[in-house]
Amino acid sequence: MIEKIFKLQENNTTINTEIRSGLTTFLAMVYIVPVNASIMSLTGMPFDALITATACVTIIATLLNAFWSNTPIAMSVGMGLNAYFTFGLVKGMQIPWQSALGIVMISGLIFLVLSFTKFRVWVLESVDLNIRRAISAGIGLFIAFIGMHGMGFIVANKSTLVSMGDMSDPKVLLGIFGFLTASFFYMRKIKGAFLYSIVLTTTIAWILGIAKLPEHIFSTPASLAPIVFKFDIESVLKLSFLPVIITFLITDMFDTIGTLAGVGLRANLFKKDSKKLQKTLEADALATVIGASLGTSTTTSFIESAAGVEEGGRTGLSSFVTAILFITTLFFLPFFKSIPPSAIYAILVMVGVLMFSELKNIDFKDPVILISSFLTIFLMPLTYSITMGLSAGFFTYFVLALIQQDKEKINIGSSILALIGLISFWIS
């Protein structure tokens, strides 16, 4: 039965291999449940409900992909856009979280419709690969900055805008410890590096009295009622929100395609079967709509799936196992609530470091790429807005390409994105 559903023999794999792969992916990405809930709860959304929502959307989206595309790709709430949701939209633009969910829902619906067209290919051909890499690096710098600020490692300063925090503060030291342990586990290529870092840092916090030891480890799942179907679309149907909607759409698109390209390359998942790629993209788009309905930010394919692929995962059975294992996270609410913020923010910094590593692949010899990439990367954290970084990058890329008279860089797609960038500056 399992053999026929997931075509194991056709994909040169076995049940044991797929189970091991699914477990590996689960350990690599389980950190997303407490991390996402901690980040999004800063908007005023209830932490308990977010734990349930994050777990549920991960389970549903990963199961959907397992059976629809039969690929070993797990899905959950994307890092970067969840931070932008919280710090860029709700805290930065001062809009209610219900309206922010409305933006995610609109971008998800557009994404879903476009998933059945050649729009993705058109966008990929329109945006220079170097700019796409700059976007990833910029988001990495943005969330690392948020993480360092959350740890207290960086604080506001009236004279210099920012400065170092109090290095004698136990919470700051705990965050530094969490970052170093995450770095150590990652460098040692230990599966579940971020999870182990959170557990170890939290244990140290309990011992030192920095965090309160939970009375219980397990509990029944919290209700989704406070956030499910609370998205407000009507309030964001304004021209001023168009750049933000496009930001979520484009970033999710690049994130997904980049992840699938990277994971697929390691195992030739999509080289012989483009239908698998298309179906995975469709599942990813539908997952964002499901996520917004349940009360979470944009859902995307997780690069941590590569850990499972390295273990030999080749089919949806691997994703199925990962999804089933995520059911267990629904019952760990007391433990998740006892995790100190410093342990969470340390992981945010580490994720930012990994995303920032895309910088090494950018061709800085081209002055158009150099200048537009620089603005894309640094304006994201400096303006606290992914939208501003994207807009600046697209606009300067197009203008400088005109000055350089580089016809290869000038096309309908880059022209439209430059115009959108100009509009976003105008209405911001």
Name its key features:
428 residues; mainly alpha; two-stranded antiparallel sheet; 19 helices; 4 strands
Count of beta strands: 4
User: What is the structural class?
Assistant: mainly alpha
Beta-sheet strand percentage?
under 5%
State the domain count.
1
Termini separation comes to 56 Å
* Overall helicity: 55-70%
Gross morphology is: globular
Determine Rg (CA atoms, Å). 21 Å
Order of SSEs: HHHHEHHHHEEHHHHEHHHHHHH
Largest sheet: spatial strand order: 1-4
Global mean pLDDT: 91
Return residue spans where pLDDT drops below 50 for at least 5 consecutive residues.
none
Characterize the biggest β-sheet: 2 strands, antiparallel
Note the total helix count. 19
Your description of this structure?
It is a single chain. With 428 residues, the protein is mainly alpha-helical. It has one domain. The protein is built from 19 helices and 4 strands. The strands form 2 sheets. Strands 1-4 form a two-stranded antiparallel sheet. A two-stranded antiparallel sheet has the order 2-3. Strand 2 and strand 3 form a beta hairpin. The radius of gyration is 21 Å and the shape is globular. The model has no long low-confidence stretch (mean pLDDT 91).
Write the topology of this structure:
Layout: H1 2-6, H2 15-29, H3 32-40, H4 47-68, E1 75-77, H5 81-90, H6 97-114, H7 119-126, H8 129-151, E2 154-157, E3 161-164, H9 170-187, H10 193-208, H11 242-267, H12 274-294, E4 299-301, H13 305-310, H14 316-326, H15 333-338, H16 341-356, H17 367-383, H18 386-404, H19 412-427
Antiparallel strand pairs: 1-4, 2-3
